[in-house]
Amino acid sequence: MTDYGQNPGSQPWQPDDSLYGGQQDWSGGQPGAGHHHYGGQQPQQHYPHQQQASWDSGQHQQYPGGWDTTGGGMPLADPYAPAPQPDYYGTPDAYPPPNPHPRRPHPQQQPGPPQPGHHRPPPHQQQPPHPGQGGRRNGGREDWDPASRPPARDDHPFFDGGDDDFDDGPREGRGGGRSAGRGTGRDRRGAKRRNGCACLVIALVLAAGLGGLGYLGYNFWNDRFGAAPDYSGEGTGSVNVEIPEGASITQMGNILKDKGVVKSVQAFVDAAGDEMLHPGSYTLHKGMSGQAAVKMMLNPEAANQLVIPEGRRATAVYAMIDEHLGLKDDTTAKIAEKGDLGLPDWADGNPEGFLWPSSYSAAEGTDPKKLLREMVKRANATYTELGLEDKAAKVGQTPYEIVTIASLIEAEGQSKEEFGKVSRVIYNRLKPDNTATNGMLQFDSTINYAKGESNLDISNQDTQFDSPYNTYLHAGLPPGPIDNPSERAIVAALEPTAGDWLYFVTVKPGDTRFTASKEEHDRNVEEFNENQRKKEDE
Length: 538
Prior knowledge:
- The protein is built from 14 helices and six strands.
- It is mainly alpha-helical.
């Protein structure tokens, strides 16, 4: 197949081919020996003007200087000289036909009558061969029928318009106008406009995605490492808030946030820290800082709360209720004596140890009995949660005895960290084989309870005070609790710290000494007495 031809082998160039009619004639071109593409293969058709020079299609003898290509013995032509051009002066248009574009072929058309203004050259005018196509004579070329030629092969990019995506040449005159090329400028502008819109949409989607990721990252950073959102100041107005029983600090914060008291739960939780906040009814302000809300909830007067501290005796609790509600003295005590407070059967009707230390809503006009019943209810709930009855049996005690031991721990212990050791001293002294104290606890707190006092300096005479609660005179536990213990004291009574201690004394605040030796204990007691004398002298 030729370089640009559409027909294989010796098939002639198609007259409508863009490379066929646009070749310029030249004389003196000689083909290589034995490469006559068209010579001697088909009978030659003669045209009327055979007198003009023609190209021999037969086999020629090789000469060192080539052969005469003019057909008439004329001098050899310069292969680089301009080829003679047909004279179109006598034609109707007097102009040569336009040459096809050198790179883009015309659409293939069937032979037809010439179009006005585009006449073909007369048939007698010979077109010289293209360089490299030697051996063909225009005047003696075979007659061929375009209709009988093999179908054109349009699969090559050169013929289907795919050889070049962009052409800088003028578009007029290509196959009938601008629309025959790659497309009009409007098409290209439309394609560019569509491409631009697609890019804009993608950019907007990416920007939205990046913005969303940034927002999520900012919130994640603030939640993890940033300060919790919070109001400033004491707030304004007032709002009633009810904190249910058993609510945690976080649950309290959620309630306050829903009521508009604090800005965020975490701000309230951070401000509360280790503070003991109790359930009940509170009157707070809207828009308070977390710190201000905690401070107000700890203030009984501002919150209309009655706070029962840990380790208070029942008589002290009765007096606090009377004072808070503006009642006459002993009003609450008389109500307690009548009973019906919801005590368990094993309490023997004694509310001591069941007036649970906590915060209670006690506005003016509140029924004292209602308050007492609420306290007992909370105590029963806590004991049940701790598994008091089952665990008491494991340490050889009844539930009531555990509450009694816990009340002794609450009264004797100077700090929460000492509760486990105090519990162990009680259990060691209660052992039947205890010969050091003969089963007696000898706690000053029991004498103070029996006498209704709170003295640190117990005299020898006080140790002889006649009362079943006097553990200097009576072995074993007192008849019942001597105060209302905390949850930590209950746990210490159920789980005493391991040790052999039998004695302890608080020599000075923060200095409680435990020992198993009577002699060492006596020395510690003497040091305690010395410190007391110094205080009296001051």
